[in-house]
Amino acid sequence: MGTPTGAVTFSDGANVISVQPLDANGNAILSTAFTVTGVHSLTASYQANATFAASASGIVSLNVSGQDRSNVSTTKISAVQNAQVSNGLTLMATVAARSGAASGQVTFMDGAEPIATVSLDANGVGRYSVVLARSGLHYLGAVYAGDREVGPSVSQVLLERAPLTKPDFSLNLSATSIAVLQRQPISVTISVDPINGFSDSLSLSCASNTPELACTFTRSTLQNAMGMSVLTIAPMQNTASFTNFQVNQWLHFAAWTLGILAALILAWPSRPRMAARFVCATLLLGVAGCGAPRIRLFDNGPSPGNYSIIVRAVSSGANAGISHTAELQITVPPPPQLAKNSNAAAGLPTE
User: Fold this and answer.
1) What is the fold of 168-237+301-345?
2) Strand 201-208 vs strand 305-316: parallel, antiparallel, or unpaired?
3) pTM
4) Residue 346: its pLDDT value, please?
5) Residue 161 burial (10 A CB sphere; 0-12, 13-18, 19+)
């Protein structure tokens, strides 16, 4: 429906004190001094316009005594979210006198409705915990009635919207999927966006679902949820593939060497025994069965496939324990020669 515009008329009984315009939040504030002692019946009325109907407040009775309270005061209000209670706030009013310390009581208000009246401590501070049950904007304030020596004062209006949003953060990666070439490290930038005033420090960690990829940070802690860190993914040496490559080469080398020796024996001019011929023939058949060496063209990098790196950020401080994760998908393509052989075996084009 929008925020009312126009003005509010403040009255003391039948006497108009002042007409004050509404601000952008629909509030009108009047500061005044009473020269007449006794009970004053105060009201506020809103004049109708083309959009909003007229309305009037209830009567607020104020007893003005003849005491000299030239020691003026100022009242400030603040609110801190209660992490243990949904939509919970701890309100704090601080009353400062021109000289000495203020005493007495302060009343917390939500618009025109009083929330609670509490006593000030020795430092002029009053506290009260409240739950904002109604959704929407709440116009919170604190009213100090004064004491025998310190004059009254009213705080500024503090706006709070319910339901309350607790401090939080979002975790961002500059890329969510990337390809890793053989033995070539890659880097991804990590940043955070504070939400609702979040300013705690964050600890970063990462985990890979394969031992063939290692992850490290340039900064493992982001102070006050500020700055960035760079995540580096480094391929590890593929020991199994490298070992298989060596074993296969040595076996094929030995088989071909024995085959050549067997051929030389068969071609020897002398007439060897039948048993020697049988052994040589067996060696030749073995070599023929082995065929050409099937050398795996794996580098020392990770095996082809799809992997993932999980990045986690955990908060410490006033909002300790908030944790968010982000996943980086990694694809390791096969080496060109291996892909060509696979395509040929499948009857696909090799170029």
Assistant:
1) Immunoglobulin-like (2.60.40)
2) antiparallel
3) 0.41
4) 45
5) exposed
